[in-house]
């Protein structure tokens, strides 16, 4: 049964007049009368009682009217939701993230986007960058917020979202904890907690080069993959580390964050997605993020 036929029946049922119903539907009366006869023939029941005084609904017509209204409302909802989904205003976004991006303002972006698009469900997945990129390739994420180490992976597109500088994270009892600025040579006697080179050769090599430039070879005490573990080890007095300045804004008990006078690379975090991505929410979120994150880059 066509939706158009249902709409025609509703117009007749609500006006109880073929002429007014035809006028409302922008059609002539004879085709409307024929359509109602075809509808009744298709159903095998009389929906309308016709006489000289006008038209009224039969008991079956009253039931059919209530049901048809629900069908038409459901069809309208389906069309509206489908169009909004195609525009990225509804649907789901599986969003990868990492600690520095969370500290740099990603939660505020997600909250702002949800305020504008309440029908988009965002599922956050916290993983290190390497894992996020693998999940993108496997279709387990729609969008990732990552650091790029080396060349851009094939088949992906990226846009810069956040930029941050490194600071020194030292135990609160450290001699440099109260300084306004710490130099690399001030840490020559400290154990260093560092990100594994396999997960970030650029930073790893830059730290080693900066230490050598300051006249010493670093003593690497631990290599850990996450910033939360790094800060926990620093707070326990097991060494010092270099972390994005955004982590300092969140604070960490037992750790002091001191501006660093060195040539360590700037922390750059990118939104990354597969070329040819078919989820329209990705484009919609990136448009919002690039506009809203502008002060951060």
Automatic annotation (TrEMBL):
Q: Name one GO cellular component term.
A: protein-DNA complex
Q: Does the keyword Metal-binding apply?
A: no
Query: What Pfam families has UniProt attached to this entry?
Result: HTH_1, LysR_substrate
Q: Which segments does the entry list as coiled coil?
A: none
Can the keyword Transport be found in this entry's annotation? Answer: no
InterPro entries the UniProt entry points to: LysR_HTH_N, LysR_subst-bd, WH-like_DNA-bd_sf, WH_DNA-bd_sf
Provide the alphabetized UniProt keywords: DNA-binding, Transcription, Transcription regulation
Show the GO MF annotations.
DNA binding; DNA-binding transcription factor activity
Q: What CDD domains would the database entry show? A: PBP2_LTTR_aromatics_like
* Family membership: Belongs to the LysR transcriptional regulatory family.
- This one is known as LysR family transcriptional regulator
């Amino acid at each position: 049964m066509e939706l158009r036929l249902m709409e025609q029946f509703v117009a007749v049922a609500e006006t109880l007049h073929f002429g007014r119903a035809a006028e409302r539907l922008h059609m002539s009366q004879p085709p409307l009368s024929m359509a109602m006869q075809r509808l009744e023939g298709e159903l095998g029941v009389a929906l309308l009682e016709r006489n000289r005084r006008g038209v009224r609904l039969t008991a079956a017509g009253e039931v059919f009217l209530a049901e048809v209204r629900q069908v038409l409302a459901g069809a309208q909802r389906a069309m509206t939701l489908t169009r909004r989904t195609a525009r990225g205003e509804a649907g789901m976004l599986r969003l990868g993230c990492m600690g520095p991006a969370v500290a740099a303002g990603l939660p505020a972006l997600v909250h702002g986007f949800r305020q504008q698009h309440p029908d988009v469900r965002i599922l956050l997945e916290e993983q290190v960058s390497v894992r996020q990129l693998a999940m993108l390739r496997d279709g387990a994420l729609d969008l990732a917020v990552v650091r790029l180490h080396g060349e851009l992976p094939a088949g992906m597109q990226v846009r810069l979202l956040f930029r941050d500088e490194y600071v020194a994270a030292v135990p609160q009892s450290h001699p440099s904890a109260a300084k306004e600025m710490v130099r690399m040579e001030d840490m020559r006697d400290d154990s260093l907690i560092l990100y594994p080179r396999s997960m970030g050769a650029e930073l790893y090599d830059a730290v080693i080069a900066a230490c050598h430039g300051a006249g010493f070879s670093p003593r690497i005490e631990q290599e850990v993959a996450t910033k939360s573990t790094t800060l926990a080890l620093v707070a326990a007095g097991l060494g010092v580390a270099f972390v994005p300045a955004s982590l300092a804004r969140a604070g960490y008990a037992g750790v002091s964050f001191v501006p660093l006078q060195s040539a360590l690379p700037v922390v750059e975090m990118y939104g990354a997605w597969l070329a040819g991505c078919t989820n329209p929410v990705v484009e919609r979120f990136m448009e919002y993020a690039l506009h809203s994150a502008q002060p951060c880059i």
